[in-house]
TrEMBL record:
InterPro entries: CobU/CobP, P-loop_NTPase. Belongs to the CobU/CobP family. One of its GO terms (molecular function) is adenosylcobinamide kinase activity. Its EC number is 2.7.1.156, 2.7.7.62. The lineage of its organism: Bacteria, Bacillati, Cyanobacteriota, Cyanophyceae, Oscillatoriophycideae. It comes from Phormidium pseudopriestleyi FRX01. This is Adenosylcobinamide kinase. Catalyzes ATP-dependent phosphorylation of adenosylcobinamide and addition of GMP to adenosylcobinamide phosphate.
Length: 190
């Protein structure tokens, strides 16, 4: 069996989730959709976004809601003896769910995720991640923390994923085919 880590990144409403779903469908493996969002019945707009994602999923796919325990869900889904294709949508929401963790705790969570991915022996994991660092620097500390944590995570995943896709304007570009991986960087410190 072979392991495969795929990263699909891009701005909001670019088509990145649809591209990741197409890749999952084409994998030929059972698909487990790891949804990182938290349901909020008091936010109908958020519920509408979740519903649109649900409607697109194939009936044969299983869904797990994993707002925090992502590493454990990935480990479980890739060690079941029947390697699946795990689709994680999205890393930005996962980072937001853990935003109140202090920096040492966050670094430990991130290191645990990266170590578990390096140790995968089989299965496919497709990550969907938002690109948030292309705009202005947020004027408030929590916004800067979110942007920096997500940016660091995406860069670290990009170093071990193959392929890495950038989806923008409804087009998927295989960055692995046209780009070069930068050397590792230190985890961001505040």
């Amino acid at each position: 069996m072979v392991k495969r880590i795929i990263l699909v990144t891009g701005p909001a409403r670019s088509g990145k989730s649809e591209w990741a779903e197409l890749l999952a469908e084409q994998s030929g493996k059972p698909v487990i959709y790891l949804a990182t969002s938290r349901l909020d019945p008091d936010d109908p707009e958020w519920q509408g976004r979740i519903d649109r994602h649900r409607i697109r999923r194939l009936p044969s796919w299983s869904t797990q809601e994993v707002p925090v325990a992502l590493t454990a869900a990935i480990f479980q889904g890739t060690t079941s003896g029947n390697p699946a294709c795990l689709l994680v949508d999205s890393l930005g929401t996962w980072v937001a769910n853990l935003l109140e963790e202090d920096d040492p705790t966050w670094r430990a969570i991130l290191d645990e995720l990266m170590e578990s991915l390096r140790g995968l022996k089989e299965g496919t994991v497709i990550f969907v991640a938002e690109e948030t660092g292309w705009g202005v620097v947020p004027a408030y500390p929590m916004g800067r923390t979110f942007r920096d944590r997500l940016g660091d995570l995406v860069r670290r995943l990009g170093a071990i994923a193959d392929p890495v896709y950038l989806v923008t304007g409804g087009h998927a570009v295989n960055l692995s085919a046209i780009g070069s991986v930068l050397p590792p960087t230190q985890t961001l410190e505040n």
